[in-house]
Protein: ABC transporter substrate-binding protein
Organism: Paenibacillus ferrarius
Amino acid sequence: MESLRSQGKHRKYGAAGLSILMLTSIVLAACSETGSTGKDGVNTPNADPAKSTATYPMNTKETLTSWEGINNNAITFYQNLAETPFGKQLAKETGVEVKYVHPNDQQLKEQFNLMIVSEKLPDVIEYDWTGRSSGSYPGGPEKAISDKVILELNDLIDKYAPNLKKKLQEDKELDKMIKTDSGKYYVFPMIRNPSGLVFRGPIIRKDWLDELQLPLPETIDDWEKTLIAFRDKKGAKAPLSVTYVNGNFEIRDAFIGAYHTSNSFYLDDAGKVKYGPVDPQYKDFLTLFRKWYAEGLFDKDFALTDGKVLDTKMLGGQTGATVSLLSGGMGKWMDAMKTKDPKFNLVGSPYPVLQKGEKPFTGQRDFKYNPGPSKAVSATTKNPELAVRWLDYAYSTKGSLLFNFGVEGESYVMKDGNPVYTDQIVKNEKYSLQQMVAQFTKPNGPYEADERRNWNTYPQQDEAVKIWSNTDAAKHTIPAFLTPTAEESKELGKIINDISNYKEEMFAKFIMGKEPLENYGKYVEQIKKLGIDRAVNIYQNSLDRYNKR
């Protein structure tokens, strides 16, 4: 597969054309804080961190550029990360001024493509480099390195990133996750804490359930009865609604998992890779949602529903159930309604199953390493040492406090040796906790999430995590960081892109009744013609190699 960079040398593409080409994928211390000098594992950085000691703020007049998304809650106050209290404090503590370029999150992939083919790359780029989906780099990190888009980081981490190096030496699981099969490190990772792996699931209006004397739905039949009641007795125009943006149907595997399949690639009970949308039982899910769509139980405008539209539907009583985030969904909506409608109450609901008492086949459960908000260093940077030292600050003791808790004395204070958010953050009368922390911290990005950080402001959120965690997702979820070989990526890029485009087109047609479900067999045949069996084989090979790292 010709690289995006080489394509850019010959011609420029519009966003639509690029979509077709893409693969559907500190040392701080008051004086110093050094990395570990313990034994190294295979392919683990092996330079002596003591020789890499740096102090912050660094004494430099050099600047950096960073291409990364900005949290939607921060946009309430600022248009650029450099203007936020977090951005200003990061510049102060590191001594590095950074110019941030923020892509539109609704056009992330297209704007990334345009940047790559333009060959005008910033110093660091926050993006999914795994090649696992249409929204990641085609061919994965090995291809990005060989395309001279990003740098291999092994030597740079050895020499200039003692804080990250120490974490990799101490955590072999993490070390395994953030490198390629050949042992190349390619990003400064976002590292989730153990309690932060589950944060999305079905959410439902508990006040409506109580008013209608309905139990929390567990089975598909329960859900149908509940949605009918929401439609008929609460006047909900879209009893169940979810966002559908850039081909991402944010129901994820809720409802789909009830049929023991997935909306994408997954692992079966034997640990083998499968592609859910061609499973026979996937047709059962489509049949269900076609029925719900026709009966007005599932949002008639689901294909046009983005985050802002869903906010309006949830807060305006048009929708009583969705699948969304713990803080960015449930917490945000409850904050918005706590004074307008004190009875407004949301709770997490179990992932639906077919038979009562059955454990959900899958659900949302992520891994310690989160590829999307991780940062790579571009191959065109003029000062890779500065970029790496700047990135490494986030993994230091003081840097971690800034990324997780913000500015001491403003957004947090230390009590008994632990950071605690101030009343300005947790008891703000005008803005939600999520809006406040987005100004002072970086909610997602290349750093390690602190176990002491908790953005839950309601007991319903804590309970939701327990409910959503009760699935077999850990058994059936494919690691998000598998790396195909360069040869495999040549095939995978076109296969996944073609399949994803066709699958999303047919998905909407099946549910909306524009394509008869009797044609499901023809749909599966077409996906097979597009090469799904070969794609599954490539993922299986990648998984086998990952397990041997």
Q: What stands out?
A: The CA atoms of residues 26 and 393 lie 4 Å apart. The radius of gyration is 24 Å. The chain is about 40% helix and 10% strand.
